[in-house]
Amino acid sequence: MIALLWRDLRLAIRAGGGFGLGLAFFLIVVVLVPFGVGPETALLSRIAPGILWVASLLAALLSLDRIFALDYEDGSLALLATSPLPMEGVAMTKALAHWITTGLPLTFAAPVLGFLLSLAPEAYFYLLLSLLIGTPALSMIGTFGAALTVGLRRGGLLLSLLVLPLYVPTLIFGAEAVRRGAEGLDPTGALMLMGGITAGCFALLPFATAATLRINLR
Amino acid sequence: MLTVSGVTCARGGVPVLADVSFSVEAGHALILRGPNGIGKTTLLRTLAGLQPAIEGEVSYPEDEGAYASHADGIKTALTVTENLKFWADVHGATLPGDILETFDLADLKNRMGGTLSAGQKRRLGLARLGVIGRKVLFLDEPTVSLDGFSVRLFASWLQDKHLASGGVAVIATHIDLGIAAPELDLTPFKAAPDAEGGADEAFL
To answer: Boundaries of each ABC transporter domain copy (chain B) (predicted)?
Structure first.
């Protein structure tokens, strides 16, 4: 599984791997918002938590269809299915690789962009923390969605439709935690619920993903 | 080593082959023959465990099967050595020192997978079989896009390395590989057009 993780990370970084694509998208969306809503700092700082969370969610969505599609096309997925790696492990590793190449960079870029949206100073720590807890769930749910649509031509749109509703709880609690942090309230409850969602995703979805992949490989 | 008894397999919900039975002893190969569409690929995928058989049983030592098809699973952004090293790591094996020479890849070892020709890719795909150390190989048209020299290279690896060390191979091919192996024509096993068991009738 470590070999698979290293291979995926290496492929993401090399030419055509799409590393940084999500990050650039995130950057552009957040930069566009002040142009759209005007330079009023009070308004910007109020909507900043929501904007940052929605933008990182969309950025994570952008690279989902690559998780299994490329391996399916060149036959690696069938070869992995007959290898000693359990499919559940493959699913988990793929989600982890997606998180390292998408969620993790987003998490560390977000505070910089928070500055651009004049996010309240108290909120930076919770922004970082909530993204760190929440983005793994986005990758895992997305991996499941990618497995569902793996054999389909142009499954990208269907994938978004399937996955976005499942992202809602993470989005609500993530943005709520940052908002509470910005207003000086206690965000522990929202963070813990989000942590619960992430833990639940990683406990259950690898099995669902593996079962889906097996059916799609038939 | 490999025993297939009464296997019926389906493609896209339609049974294509019915009641296929054969067995292959360690150190031997079996060549599958039959016209296009008879179900060679479907049978090999069923044997490899990628899809379930509708009926019948397939038995070989657990975790010893390997499948190779038209798609070689080569990553275009990885070099030849990195591609092979990955499959070796996944299977917990080490890269045999002479593998690149065996498949005539030594000159290409630092080339990116994406820059290889179709035949070179095929050789790399076949070299994977020499790396993963599995005993029971299911090969679907292994010689597609190989030139005569490479076919002999592959046949001699199969004969001298794989079969000689007690391996088994089931090969679907249309050409003469030049190895001594019995042939099985799949035409008599063609499933009846109205055979049941494949499609889920509730959805029709």
So the answer is: 2-202
